[in-house]
């Protein structure tokens, strides 16, 4: 009985903590956390937003993407990806940052811890051979509340 209880406790503890060190590369495709039966909230109801530092870019430029909580609602985690809206292929790369974890397999950035955050600053480096870029993401407010489909677009100059 004690052994069964211990196993159940460990499984529940793992599920409750989610990915405390950031999203794994297997999250690249769907960009959704595996939080039990919980489903994403629609992006239009999100208290979070993406704001980019530029409306356009040239190859090699650095574009800053701010993940913000304008209402002050903290978030635990996030995954942001840069992609070409024509091809849906991921493009460019994000630079390392404080509290951030690169996922190089899919031009993405994630959190590196599950502490509350009010914002995150991501630096994306534009590739040499791409058109417009769109940033898409998922923000985890709590284990059972997360928003999927947030986006921002930057035009190629």
TrEMBL record:
Renumbered to this chain, region (Disordered) spans: 30-51
Keyword Cell membrane tagged: no
Pfam families cross-referenced by the UniProt entry: Reeler
Output the CDD domains linked to this UniProt entry. Answer: Reeler
In terms of InterPro entries, this protein maps to:
Ferric-chelate_Red/DefProt, Reeler_dom, Reeler_sf
Q: Pinpoint the Reelin domain residues.
A: 13-157
Q: Does the keyword Signal apply?
A: yes
Q: What are the UniProt keywords, alphabetically?
A: Signal
Q: Which residues form the signal peptide?
A: 1-18
User: What does the entry list under GO cellular component?
Assistant: membrane
Highest taxon, organism lineage: Eukaryota
- Composition bias (Polar residues) maps to 38-51
Entry protein name: Reelin domain-containing protein
Species in which this protein is naturally found? Trichonephila clavata (Joro spider)
Which lineage is the organism of this entry classified under, starting from the top rank?
Eukaryota, Metazoa, Ecdysozoa, Arthropoda, Chelicerata
């Amino acid at each position: 009985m004690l052994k069964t209880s211990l196993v159940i406790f460990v499984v529940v503890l793992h599920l409750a903590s989610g990915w405390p060190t950031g999203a794994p590369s297997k999250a690249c495709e769907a960009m959704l956390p595996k939080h039990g039966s919980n489903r994403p909230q629609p992006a239009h109801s999100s208290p979070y937003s993406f704001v980019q530092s530029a409306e356009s870019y040239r190859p090699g430029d650095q574009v800053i993407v701010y993940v913000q909580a304008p209402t002050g609602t903290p978030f635990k985690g996030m995954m942001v990806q840069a992609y070409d809206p024509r091809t849906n292929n991921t493009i460019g790369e994000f630079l390392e940052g404080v509290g951030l974890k690169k996922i190089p397999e899919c031009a993405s950035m994630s959190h590196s811890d599950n502490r509350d955050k009010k914002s995150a600053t991501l630096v994306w480096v534009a590739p040499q051979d791409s058109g417009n870029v769109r940033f898409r993401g998922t923000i985890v407010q709590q284990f059972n509340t997360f928003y999927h489909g947030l986006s921002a677009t930057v035009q190629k100059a």
